[in-house]
Write a structure and sequence with these properties.
By secondary structure, the chain is an alpha+beta fold. It is built from twelve helices and 18 strands.
Length: about 375
C-alpha cells in the first residue's frame, strides 16, 4: 500500500496538486487523519492513503469571540490544550481517541456520548475549507456564530466521510469550561421499566446513558456540569429519578473507546418502547456492551471481534429486533465493521459527481 503523506507535500496547494494528479490517473485516495478509526462507516478503497495529520495548528483564535479556526490535522488533544489555557473548550468528546483529528471528527460526524449541553459536531462547526476531487479550494461558512453564508455546504460536509472533499480547515464554536464538570455513575432504586419511563420523561439538562456491560447490571452514567449550586441541584434531581449510589468516574475512556475489530451497531426505536428495546438487545447480544441514550432513544451496541460473524446486515437485525419488541419499529445502522458497501441514492450520486466527478476521494470498495 502506498502512503502519500502531507509531511511530504507540505501545504494545502500541494494537497490540491496531489488530488489533481490522482484524478488524472484514476487513482483513488483514502483520506486519513491520525488513522485511529479506519474501520468506521462504509468500506473504502484503501490501496492508497493520503494523510492530513501534518496539516495541523491553529489558524486564528480570538478567545473573546469563543471561536477558533484550526487546520484539519490538529488533534482534539492539541486543541484542548490550547483552549483550556483560556478557560475554554470544544464542547464534545466523541467516540474514539483524543488523538483523533478535527478533520476526521467533522468528516465522520462522530457522535459524542454525554455531550455537554447535548451538543454534537454538527452544532459546533461554523465554517470549513476543503479541496474537492477536482483539486479546487472551496470555503463555506465563516468565523462568526451568526454567519449563515454557505451553511448548507457546511452541513453537507459534516458526516460525509471525506467523500465530498478533503477538509483542510475548520472553524468551531467554543464554550467556557464550567466550574464543575464531572461524570458520575449510579444504579437504580426503581424497577427497570419505571426508571426508563422516568428518564424518557425527564426534561432536566442532564446528559445520561444507561450502560450495561456483559455480566453486570445496568448502570446510569450522567454528566454533571455548571456552577456548584447547579451541580448539586442536578445530582438531587438524579436521586428523584431513582438513580442512587452515585460515585464519580475519573476515567471515561471506556465510554469512548472504539475497539479495533469489533462490530458497532447504532439501534434506534421510539423512546416509549425503551424497556422492550433494552430487553431485546440484552437477549439478542448477551456478550455485547450496550449504551442507551434516553434523549435520542438510540443504543450503541459493541459486539466483540470474535462474536461479529452473525451480524452482517443492518436491515436483518432491525427486523429481528422489531419482532422481539412486539412489532415496534426499530432502525439499525452499522457504524463499524460493515461488510457490504451501501449504495448511494440518486441525490447523493449527483452531489458526489458535482464535487468529485472521478470518485477519487474515499471511493467505496474494499479496505
Amino acid at each position: 500500500m502506498t502512503d502519500i503523506g502531507l509531511a511530504r507535500v507540505g501545504s494545502v496547494d500541494a494537497l490540491a496538486d496531489t488530488i489533481r494528479h490522482a484524478a488524472a490517473h484514476d487513482a483513488p485516495l483514502r483520506l486519513v487523519g491520525s488513522g485511529t478509526w479506519l474501520h468506521g462507516g462504509s468500506p473504502f478503497d484503501g490501496r492508497s492513503r493520503l494523510s492530513l495529520r501534518a496539516l495541523a495548528g491553529v489558524v486564528h483564535y480570538e478567545p473573546g469571540d469563543l471561536v477558533v479556526t484550526a487546520y484539519a490535522g490538529t488533534t482534539l488533544a492539541e486543541l484542548d490544550a490550547i483552549t483550556r489555557a483560556h478557560g475554554q473548550m470544544l464542547a464534545i468528546a466523541p467516540y474514539g481517541s483524543p488523538e483523533s483529528t478535527l478533520g476526521a471528527v467533522v468528516a465522520t460526524g462522530t457522535h459524542a456520548p454525554l455531550a455537554f449541553g447535548d451538543l454534537q459536531v454538527r452544532d459546533l462547526v461554523l465554517g470549513l475549507a476543503s479541496v474537492t476531487g477536482t483539486g479546487e479550494h472551496i470555503r463555506a461558512g465563516g468565523r462568526v456564530v451568526k454567519n449563515v453564508a454557505g451553511f448548507d455546504l457546511v452541513r453537507l460536509q459534516v458526516g460525509a466521510w471525506g467523500t465530498l472533499g478533503a477538509i483542510t480547515e475548520v472553524t468551531l464554536r467554543l464554550h467556557a469550561v464550567p466550574d464543575v464538570d464531572r461524570v458520575v455513575v449510579g444504579t437504580s432504586t426503581r424497577p427497570a421499566a419505571t426508571l426508563l419511563a422516568a428518564l424518557v420523561e425527564n426534561r432536566a439538562p442532564i446528559p445520561m446513558l444507561v450502560v450495561r456491560t456483559p455480566g453486570s447490571e445496568r448502570q446510569i452514567w450522567a454528566r454533571i456540569s455548571g456552577n456548584p449550586a447547579r451541580a448539586a441541584a442536578l445530582e438531587a434531581h438524579l436521586a428523584q429519578l431513582g438513580v442512587a449510589a452515585l460515585h464519580p468516574v475519573t476515567d471515561v475512556r471506556p465510554l469512548h473507546v472504539v475497539p479495533d475489530g469489533a462490530r458497532i451497531l447504532r439501534v434506534r426505536a421510539p423512546r416509549a418502547h425503551a424497556a422492550a428495546l433494552l430487553d431485546a438487545l440484552e437477549a439478542r447480544y448477551p456478550h455485547a456492551t450496550l449504551a442507551w441514550d434516553p434523549v435520542r432513544g438510540t443504543a450503541r451496541v459493541i459486539l466483540p471481534a470474535d462474536l461479529t460473524h452473525g451480524v452482517l446486515d443492518g436491515d436483518a437485525e432491525a427486523q429481528a429486533l422489531s419482532t422481539q419488541c412486539g412489532g415496534t419499529t426499530v432502525a439499525v445502522a452499522i457504524d463499524q465493521g460493515r461488510a457490504t458497501v451501501r449504495r448511494r441514492t440518486p441525490l447523493e450520486q449527483r452531489v458526489k459527481h458535482a464535487l468529485d466527478p472521478r470518485d477519487i476521494l474515499n471511493r467505496l470498495g474494499t479496505p
